[in-house]
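Run: sequence + 3-methyl-2-oxobutanoic acid -> complex structure.
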Amino acid sequence: MNSDTGSTPATPPTPATLSKPVRISDLLSWKAEGTKWAMLTAYDYSTAQAMSQADIPVLLVGDSAANVIYGYKTTTEVSLDEMIPLARGVVRGAGKALVVADLPFGTYEASDEQAVLSAARMMRESGAHAVKIEGGVRIAPRIRALVDAGIPVMAHIGFTPQSVHSLSGFKVQGRAGGADALRADARAVAEAGAFAVVLEMVPADLAAEVTRDLPIPTIGIGAGRETDAQVLVWQDMVELPAGGFAPKFVRRFGAIGAALTDAARDYRDAVASGDFPGEEHAY
Ligand code: KIV
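>> structure
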């Protein structure tokens, strides 16, 4: 029930919603209506097509590509040169979805000018519709500079993987004494002009409070049930690879890793036995 209007919330984004391109204004309307929505990561044309066919309204070309595409240990190792071709593929496969691309570590922190040049390059060379950068109060001036340059910005606070070393590892943020800092980060990014904010690994009650207080949509990952939207890394959601580690906040919605390994094994055996290719595959 929508507490403001007393009405049942609008149905979640449906194929009808995605019959037109998803705009930032839609995300703001969904917040006002209490319509929850799902964001997924995507890193290539084919998976972007699959996500778009599932009416996922926002696709994130996350710098988690560092881990799941390039096999690096942390997201600090991926470059803009590596991210742009991924985003270009996603934009081509995204259909009506809004595509947000991460600016990687080291491409926006030094100055407003560096941030604007990196974001403009990402958008110009990939066609992405918006960028995401990590950080709260400390990065708010960069958000303002990007917005002033006409670049839509999604913010990312709480646990920020690009700061994994300075945060001393993967830890829930905003507990106890950290709660006020998280509230300040949330206010700062909204006031700087971000159109949405990712809350990563934040206690559920704090994420709910921030969601109520902010005028912009919150997108949770390990931030409980009350955020306006949720995001997952798609490989985590479908257990690729089979047996791969998943944080506590992930639910498995499929088992693509096992299915892919089984298919690859069947193919290997069919080739070895001479069963594939068959007569029907010959020209
Ligand atoms: O890079 C990424 O995939 C992200 C999401 C987990 C929010 O930033």
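>> summary
Residues 41, 60, 62-64, 102, 156, 198, 221, 231, 233 surround 3-methyl-2-oxobutanoic acid (CB under 6 Å). Residues 1-6 have pLDDT under 50 and may be disordered.
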